[in-house]
Design a protein that fits this description.
Distance between the termini: 5 Å
Number of helices: 0
Strand order of the largest sheet: 5-2-3-4-1-6
Order of helices and strands: EEEEEE
Shape: globular
Number of domains: 1
Number of strands: 6
Helix content: under 10%
Length: 113
């Protein structure tokens, strides 16, 4: 199965780049630096919406398809192979931010492949 992840969070803070108030989120499978499965881009409101997303600036052509084996969680998996990590993401050089759990939501659907 592959994960389909969506959600809504509030992050506030300051980062050091040309968009100083845009702290985003990413969801990775298998570890904090694992396979990217969802991304939410920051905006000036501080509210971030997570959507399924598997490409990055370093790997712009990455995609999850029924046949490429990317982000597949083997049946009956436990531990890191089946663990999702939600990380605050700073596109700038450095930043300070705060996560507010009030009203935060994360939804996961396991899609068979």
């Amino acid at each position: 199965m592959v994960p389909w992840v969506t959600g809504h969070f509030r992050l506030t803070g300051v980062e050091f780049d040309t968009t100083p108030l845009t702290i985003g989120l990413e969801v990775r499978l298998g570890g904090a630096a694992g396979t990217l499965v969802a991304r939410g881009y920051g905006n000036i409101t501080g509210y971030v919406t997570l959507i399924p997303h598997s490409s990055s600036a370093a790997q712009p052509n990455d995609a999850i398809t029924p046949t490429n084996g990317r982000a597949v969680i083997p049946a009956n998996s436990t531990g890191d192979a089946a663990t999702l990590y939600v990380n605050a993401f700073n596109d700038g050089v450095a930043g300070i931010y705060n996560f507010d759990p009030a009203g935060a939501q994360l939804a996961l659907q396991a899609i068979p492949v």
